[in-house]
Amino acid sequence: MDNRPIGVFDSGLGGLTVLKEIMELVPGESIVYFGDCGRIPYGTKSKETITKYALQDVRFLLTHDVKMIVIACNTASAMSYDEIKSKLDIPVIEVIYPGAMAAVRETRNKKVGIIGTKATIRSRAYEKVINKLDASIETFSADCPLFVQLVEEGWWDNDITYRIAEKYLTPLKEKGIDTLVLGCTHYPLLAKTISEVVGSGVKLVSSATETARVVQDVINSKCCARDPEIKPVYSYYTSDSIDSFVAFGSAFLGNKVCSVGKTDIEKY
Ligand code: DGL
Predict the structure, then answer these.
(1) Ligand 1 atom nearest residue 15's Cα
(2) Ligand 1 atom closest to Cα of 76?
(3) How many Å lie between the centroid of ligand 1 and the Cα of residue 40?
(4) Could you report the per-residue pLDDT of 209-226, keeping only the tens digit for each?
(5) Which site among 47, 57, 144, 219 is 20 to 30 Å from 2 CA-CA?
(6) 123 CB near ligand 1 (under 6 Å)
């Protein structure tokens, strides 16, 4: 048994899509979430900057004595997973492999679209894993940088978001994809709009559920579950305004966002 919390981070609020699935799958676990809202976006930055930020995020979570780190950010997973993993002796879970596995499982016509931030798409991280799992799958990718801002702004479903989505996604739709990987943890919040644009015949796949399953497997295999008699505690931290974190988090997670703190992440 291990009563320490799970540490989860993202460049902002998108990682809450992963956190929500973790809460549902392992409801007895305490979680510390850090959203680096003050420095978002990561996806337009260089590998060096993203890795510097991601390591600071990890060092902050380690001050909370976490038993595991979940990189709830595709960009940081694609750019910095190896570096983070090499520095820690607790399990580190990333989101690319689980999302790629889901895509391989779902596609029927073996044409898979991948959308993500500029850094994630440039890294070709999804293509590498998908083609390792099944070399016959054809992949088509597009970066959709404005999606992150639209999500953080709360514009999940309006006509401007729809038109931007059309511009980004029409070329992928024309390739005849039957599966689309939402390769950024912000994008599930735009799922309704994305689905309207690509059509209901295209299956949307995100890493969130699959990543939560990996968390559950690691807890089971390492026998490090929290004592079920002790109520889990959820703590949230941001590097920017607490008010906007509470507003967004509560809208997305329901009543669950109450304890939010602000941290000066540059200190870590
Ligand atoms: N949520 C992050 C991801 O999954 C990206 C947002 C950003 O650009 O910072 O890639």
Answers:
(1) 1
(2) 10
(3) 8
(4) 889 999 999 999 988 999
(5) 57
(6) no
Write down the domain spans for the chain: 6-94+209-267, 96-207
- Any residues with CB less than 8 A from the CB of 105 and at least 6 apart, and which? none
At 8 the pLDDT is 98
Which CA distances in Å does 175 have to 58, 111, 169, 171, 198? 39, 8, 10, 7, 11
- Smallest Cα–Cα separation from 130: which of 146, 106, 154, 149? 106
Same topology between domain 6-94+209-267 and domain 96-207:
yes
Is residue 236's pLDDT more than 80?
Answer: yes
> What is the third-level CATH fold of 6-94+209-267?
Rossmann fold (3.40.50)
CATH 3.40.50.410 describes domain 96-207: no
Taking all residues of the chain, what is their mean pLDDT, rounded to a whole number? 95
pLDDT in tens, 117-143: 999 999 999 999 999 999 999 999 999
d(CA 229, ligand 1 centre) in Å: 36
Q: Coil, helix or strand for 13? A: coil
In percent, the amount of the chain with pLDDT more than 70 equals: 99
pTM: 0.95
